Amino acid sequence: MSGLSKRYDIILTILLFLVAIPAQHFEWFALLEDQTLSFRHQLRLAYGDAKTLAVASEVVVVNVDEPFFKAYKSFPLRRTDIGTIVTNLKELGAKVVAVDMLMDFPSSYNEDPALAKALKDAGNTILVAQGEFRDGKFVKINYPTEMLDQASASAYTNIQSNSKLVTTLSRLKVYPELTGEKGGWPFAVRAAALFLGVDPRLEGNTLVLGGLRVPLDHNNLLYIDFPPLPTGTRFLSQSAGIGALEFLDIAGLNENERSELEFWVKDKIVILGDTSEVSHDWFDTPVGMVYGVEIIADSVSSILKGAPLRAVGPGTAAASALVVMMIMLVLTLTLTKPMPRGLCVIALGGGFFALSTGLYIKAGQVLPTSYVVLAIIISYLLIEFRQYLIERNQKQQIAKTFGQYIPPELVAEMNKTGQSVQVGGESREMTVLFSDVRGFTTISEGLAPQELTVLMNAFLSPMTHVIHDYRGTIDKYMGDAIMAFWGAPLHDPDHAKHAIQAALKMVTTMEDLKEDFIRRGWKPIKVGIGLNTGIMNVGNMGSDFRMAYTVLGDAVNLGSRIESLTKQYGVNLMISEFTQAAVPGLISRELDMVRVKGKNEPVRLYEPLGFDGEIDNETLARISHHHGALALFREQRWDGASATFQMLAAEEPERVIYKVYLDRIEHFREEPPGADWDGVYTHKEKS
Questions:
Q1: Where are the transmembrane segments (predicted)?
Q2: Cis before residue 489, ω within 30 degrees of 0?
Q3: Strand segments (E) across 354-480
Q4: Which member of 397, 408, 409, 570 has the greatest number of CB atoms within 10 A?
């Protein structure tokens, strides 16, 4: 738990989702949610059941449009003619005539009495009032003129947008505090109630119209189910409407023409409104720009159909956010690699959006979407930002910790591969190298301190480059000595081979530097190099005052002992049997089987010469003779061993190892080692 308390990305993720719950409940970011609603509704229109989505058959729009005014040859429509249209609609059997034309000022031509009489005679009529809202709060209702208001029922329109930035109308709100006032029901609700012959009432979040119960959301909002329109039509009035010009004069209609008009309006809610361009009575909705009278028609249709679109309950919405949060936390805690984590987060966000879209299209369930998706996106960015900071700090730490030991290329590889690096102590198989300058005291005599510094730099720099070239790590410089190792901080399965390659290259590099040293007036340098492979402890070690990345253990000590023995065998490079066994294809000359100081178990020592294919036949033959003589020597067959070593010494008089064994043979002839001798030579001193 203490570890999680340090995961600020986890804490912020939890906070984001917890904030998303009240945010979606109180609709703090309605604009973004409206965009998802628009997208989902477009898919609903494309893939939903067209018959189910169609506008209710009980609703028809009679519109005053551009062709009407062209034939009418006047603007605006006279109130007496509105009365005529209302009378004719009622005569043709309209059950409810809802007039979406605001008439809150008396007629300049004293036409209100005629319109009032027509409304009163028609009966079941409703006039539009205007609800005035400020910051989403109701202020007052502007009713029709007193004369008209007394002749007909009225109700307010003015659907409010969810967003303060963009006006998008998608829902109809019922204000409980207004329902008891005159005209305090929304126009669409009042029209539906007149059609059903009941008085509307509100029970909790349910609109009750007699036997029809229409569920609203927790804010008493009804989602308007905008219907699909036939191909080639842009407005509802083009498919579910008829021009008002048809109803201006029906006196001269024959029986067929009258029957045709009755088919349109008989026993229906007829909504009379203006769809002319000059009225500018159109609004942005999830399906695009829609005339106000059409929004009313769609609202009435949604009510009569029992609210095909229904918001899920606040508890369900909150639970969905919490479930997504838990999945997000599981992904964060279990997936450490960015690619799988990113793909899973995309799948989570896409899956949630697909779920909410599917519910909207097929079940008419409106699940808040943008808030949860936004929480997913922001929390993912926070998680990745934290991961970025960790990786950046890790890279800086790697560069700081290992930059002084290993080449920049290896540091870059560590950062690129993301290979696990242990800075603390751990045990692993590695290869260690010790290198020391032969006769350094003699070489340094007579050199001024500054010149000695230049000499050491001329020696240590190329040696370091060689070690780095073969992926080695510099442990430390000890005056003229170098300690390095392979296999850490990065795991290297070929650590022994790389160490051998580096050691061989160091020997040849020193030969190449000989002429440069002589030219500078320095004595040529010879080095002794010892390698050993085994289990070592590696990590940052030291005290509270100073730490160093180094290796410790018996295998390290053996490497140091081997380096100190190189001079006795007259070789520049010597390795243990463990390093020899770890490098297939390595051609070496076995030098001895010894017990070094402090060790009871014997170890074979080898002089590596190169790899398969790199050694000439003559050298291979000498190595074979040498190993044969060595076998005779260990069998105490002194004459045969001596003869072979003498032959080899004649061919290579500068090679010390032959003299070493010839001297031992002479010694054992005088003082035989005994029948139980194991062929091991014990070194009493460290060097």
A1: 317-335, 342-361, 367-385
A2: yes
A3: 365-366, 426-437, 473-478
A4: 570
